[in-house]
Design brief:
By secondary structure, this protein is α/β, with parallel strands linked by helices. It contains 20 helices and 18 strands. The chain is elongated, with a radius of gyration of 26 Å. It starts with a strand and ends in a 5-residue tail after the last helix.
């Protein structure tokens, strides 16, 4: 499903009006009507008591709210509009709808005093937030900020018009304060910020309303951000055939592990098996072989030369490159540790391996000062950083990355000429040419050590099975999160351990087979 920024949505609106001849008033009428239907539905579900209170700001979002109020009033429902602007300051379609609301007899109050606002909120059975729209870029201040804070203290449900007021429509940032909605009705296309944290926490349920924008505009290839859907995730999985055997189901080499970090190696290898890899080779420091043969029964362990401290030695480079040459993909990094020799090994493997490569965890740290080695690779590369790892790769702060996760993932993919997976709430997959995909699955249970190792193993399995890097990234991230969601539905996300994902991954992947 395509996602749009505020600027992209304005361009779609402009073209609909100028090229297709759809009046702006018609689009606003359709938008307000859709919100009115949703508001009435929620109001009745919650007991049909109290006023339907519509809070309107000075722009087109407020104009949408005035249409909402008129529709609800025309159905005989108890509606009141509070306008937080001077009526004579309204322009264009918003001004027209203010005059229509007056003509229809909608109860309107302009710039209510704080005491009156408190009374209206106390009498409300549902609040419609039409204060600020998608064009907001600066902090919410003054009167509107106070209104938002009062709304958030109210116990009644809130329906947001297009986007909760105070949420940045492009990054999901909270611009000072933001309305916490129970339901957001967005128009034409979902806005990118609705699916980016922390803004996602303010949206509640999200519904997309058809307001009669031309389909050709909504599907414009120039729109470069998408929400991952079940259909898209399933389409990216490797193709399976009835006559497959282990050799053509994908041969995967995983290079992982160090003293104290055998779990990372085992989780990645066992996840790759669960994700469908035909043969999984697990290359580890030789001193860890005995314990990993206990932890991994299906993967084939390959003990390698190690340092005096038990980490992988640079002397393992030639055997590993030879092993990689007979495989379809390589995963490099889970639990490798940060020994200088291991870092040198990573840099050599990244430079010389010719297979599709997943660079994860400590392998990313080994490249933090040599990121140009990633950019110089000619074979497909997928990186899987969390914000701290990406901060070191790009030389920017974690705060800068988190303030615009989609932009940061795009930059990483472009600068390093790879497919980038920026992990975290609302994981982003981005390509070097600017395409970005936001993942909707997963929950706070994934904030647990080892879950990233499971993702790396899944990703390697899909690459080895023949998926291209972007398809493999989208599918791995989606079904990784879906496994966590299935665990939460049956047990509780709070109790999720990384190993639990291995048991729920087959259930998640089974959904891809559903007709």
């Amino acid at each position: 499903m395509k996602l749009a920024t505020a600027a992209e949505m304005r361009e779609i609106d402009r073209r609909a009006i100028e090229e297709f001849g759809i009046p702006g008033l018609v689009l606003m009428e359709n938008a307000g009507g859709a919100v009115a239907r949703a508001a009435e539905r929620l109001w009745r579900e919650r007991g049909s008591e109290g006023t339907l209170l519509v809070l309107c700001g000075p722009g087109n979002n407020g104009g949408d709210g005035l249409v909402v109020a008129r529709h609800l009033h025309n159905r005989g429902l108890p509606v009141r509009v509070l306008l937080f602007a001077a009526a004579d300051s309204l322009r264009g379609d918003a001004a027209t709808n203010y005059r229509l609301a007056q003509a229809f007899g909608v109860a309107l109050a302009e710039r209510p005093r704080p005491q009156a606002l408190a009374g209206h909120l106390a009498a409300a059975g549902l609040i419609v937030d039409a204060l600020l729209g998608t064009g907001l870029t600066g902090p919410v201040r003054g009167e509107i900020a106070q209104v938002v804070e009062r709304v958030n203290r109210s116990p009644v449900p809130v329906v947001a018009v297009d986007i909760p007021s105070g949420v940045n429509s492009e990054t999901g940032a909270i611009l000072g304060v933001a309305v916490r909605a129970d339901l957001t009705i967005t128009f034409g296309l979902p806005k990118v910020g609705l699916y980016c944290y922390p803004g996602r926490t303010c949206c509640g349920e999200i519904e997309v309303a058809d307001i009669s924008l031309p389909r050709s505009l909504l599907g414009d290839p120039a729109l470069r951000t998408e929400l991952v859907t079940p259909k898209l995730a399933a389409a990216g999985l490797p193709v399976r055939f009835p006559d497959m055997h282990k050799a053509n189901a994908g041969r995967l080499l995983i290079i992982a592990g160090s003293p104290g970090m055998t779990g990372a190696a085992a989780l990645a290898a066992n996840a790759a098996v669960r994700a469908g890899a035909g043969l999984v080779y697990l290359a580890i420091p030789e001193g860890l072989n005995a314990v990993l043969e206990q932890k991994c029964t299906e993967p084939i362990t390959l003990p390698q030369a190690q340092t005096a401290e038990g980490a992988l030695s640079v002397q393992a480079a030639e055997p590993l490159l030879a092993q990689a040459a007979g495989c379809d993909a390589v995963v490099l990094g889970p639990g490798l540790g940060r020994h200088p020799e291991t870092a040198a090994l990573v840099q050599r493997l990244v430079t010389q391996a010719k297979q599709p490569l997943v660079v994860d965890a400590d392998a990313l740290n080994a490249l933090s000062s040599r990121a140009e080695l990633l950019a110089a690779r000619r074979a497909p590369t997928v990186i899987t950083p969390h914000p701290g790892e990406l901060s070191r790769l790009l030389g920017v702060s974690v705060e800068a990355i988190q303030s615009d996760r989609v932009g940061a993932a795009r930059r990483a993919a472009s600068d390093l000429h790879c497919t980038a997976i920026l992990k975290g709430a609302g994981t982003v997959c981005a390509t070097w040419d600017g395409q970005a995909y936001l993942n909707p699955t997963g929950n706070h249970g994934l904030a647990s050590g080892g879950t990233g190792d499971v993702l790396a193993g899944m990703l390697g399995a899909f690459l080895a099975g023949g998926s291209d890097p972007l398809d493999a990234a989208i599918s791995a991230v989606y079904y990784h999160g879906r496994a966590a969601d299935l665990y939460d539905e049956e047990l509780a996300a709070r109790s999720l351990a990384a190993g639990d994902l291995l048991d729920y991954l087959p259930r998640a992947l089974r959904e891809a087979e559903a007709p």
